[in-house]
Amino acid sequence: MPREIVLGNGSMLVNFDRELNMRDFYYPQVGLTNHIRGHRNKLGVWVNGRFSWVDDNRWQRKLGYKKSTMIGQSEAVNHDIGVALRIHDAVHFRTSMFLKKVDITNLDSQKREFRIFFSHDFSINESIVGDTAVFDSTSQCVCHYKRDRYFLINGRIGEEGLFQHSVGLKRFGGAEGTWKDAEDGILEKNPIAHGPVDSVVSFRAVLDGQATVSLYYWIIAGKSLAEVRQGNDFVLERGTERLFEEIEAYWSAWLHKKERDFYDLPEEVSEMFHRSLLVIRTQIDNNGAILAATDSDVILSYPDHYNYMWPRDGALVAYSLDLAGYPEISAKFFEFCARIISEGGYFYQRYNTDGTLGSSWHPWIQNEKALLPIQEDETALVLFALGVHYDLYRDIEFIESLYQPLIIRAADFLIAYRDPVTKLPLPSYDLWEERRGIFTFTCSAVYGALTAATSFASLLKDEPACRKYGTAAQEVRDAMERFLYCPQLDRFLRGVYPLKDGGYEKDFTLDSSLYGLFEFGAFPAGDPRVTATMNDVRENLWVKSEVGGLARYSDDYYCKKSDDIECIPGNPWIICTLWLAEWYIEAAANLTELAQGRHLIEWAVKYALPGGALPEQVHPYTGEGLSVAPLTWSHSTFVLAVEKYLEKYSSLKGAVH
Predict the structure, then answer these.
(1) Which residues 6+ apart lie within 8 Å of 148 measured at CB?
(2) At what angle do helices 528-541 and 574-587 cross, to 10 degrees?
(3) Burial class (CB in 10 A: 0-12, 13-18, 19+), 274
(4) Alpha carbon of 247 to those of 214, 258, 286: distances in Å?
(5) pLDDT tens-place string over residues 494-545
(6) pLDDT tens across 23-75, in order?
(7) Domains in the chain, CATH or no CATH each
(8) Against a cut of 0.90, is the pTM above it?
(9) Cβ atoms within 10 A of the Cβ of 6, count?
């Protein structure tokens, strides 16, 4: 189930699904350890002897965010038991605390007693072994802990704290979980349990007819009991309402650090732009790793999750953040890359948040010969994005600090990893991580990287390196014209595959990644060959249903929903549709042509989830989100397309005047 609400500060990340269940809780690094592993941490209501969990079908739910903030704002109404909940969720911008405010309204005309329940299904460090849940009589709260991970749970209605609590066993020895104890409205107050444990706490209020009361609830994370107790005291002293005000002010200021004129873009686009920036921030660890997605439910239909840092995704996200005015975040990413780059000057497929190697399906040997298990575009895109970073912010000290450990090492690898005769890059996996060969997207990224390296060498007066990188960049571009452009089709190929006789097998498959031709500077967007290529992509990869959107490539198998390849070449992807928008934007000669890009940006907004999250893919018939959501790459590509649109609109508008 997609994550409709994501909240974080770079060291804590909390995700909610569309049924208002907390499903992911990462701490102290984003994407590394999910302490609830996708299990449902639920909210329930008991009213005068009747109980209901908010995730059952008797509730009408509406999820979203408070405008221009990283505060979830949701509503849940159950007319059957006569209660309405208005819910605000937030993670503090500086400290490791999750805060919730629940405004409880009695929809009945009679005075009634309400009890609100919160269940907690922790598996600390992603394991039930050694967990303890205990009622802490000193702080009058419940605490889950193991080794150096502590999670303190408390709250207030007015001056009243927890009404009842219970801890016990879950999914062991026939025990479903302590959450079942809540359904009669009474908790047994068991004081401690260890191993596969969970807990429930409740709060109580008596409300007159049509009256409303506010409940405040929080989870403090820390590395010791003393630390979480101190955090609990901080909340009690500071006051939760004041903390919510501080959180709102902080994220509003963060979001509006760069003022923009959105010109003719509708309000829903500007709102999605702001939401995308906030979502992106939640998926970035404070140590620099940019995560692809933290929706743990993908593991139900796929053998692994997306909680990794792909250098490719990360570089393109950093690229968008630099254009949007957040160089302090992208700088940490580039420093992270300098720490993890291999001695050979390349990046592996993906990494964990702490810099260790992530899981992979690229083999290290083929036909009894060693194989470099890489996607070369990942190495190249880091240098390309770093080039954009410097062009915008001119921090020469930062570039100098990365010159030897990152720039020289990666650029020298890109030069060496080429065919000495053709000058094309040697085979590697494509950006979709599915096939091994020599691809137009990869070559375009290598060209962009070597061009950036040339500029860096020139900046630092490294003349031999400047000549070496500049020559290699031109050689790669020339080789692309010779081997990857097909005059008979009047367009570029997806790629070629080396044959034993020294020739190449051509891959004629249309692929949306051909946008890389202009994106990384290898060819202008208005080059007739690029125009013909992109027109072919648009006409043959467009999904011919009411949903529309652009597929990745012809006959895409991933999450496939139709065998009608003529009409549905693949599921529409947010990023691919926005790549087409970027081409319209870059190639536009007037505002009328530019409008084609605006329409595709609006398409992406249309197929966002109700809470504002952009999925990876869209169902070609229903329009529902597919695969993970939110996907950081989708949101960053939206930011990139909007930034490019605004820049182009400004230049065209100026030209008219």
Answers:
(1) 223, 224
(2) 140
(3) buried
(4) 18, 19, 18
(5) 999 999 888 999 999 999 999 999 999 999 999 999 999 999 999 999 999 9
(6) 999 999 999 999 999 999 999 999 999 999 999 999 999 999 999 999 999 99
(7) 43-62+71-254 (2.70.98.10), 264-307+542-657 (no CATH), 324-541 (1.50.10.10)
(8) yes
(9) 27
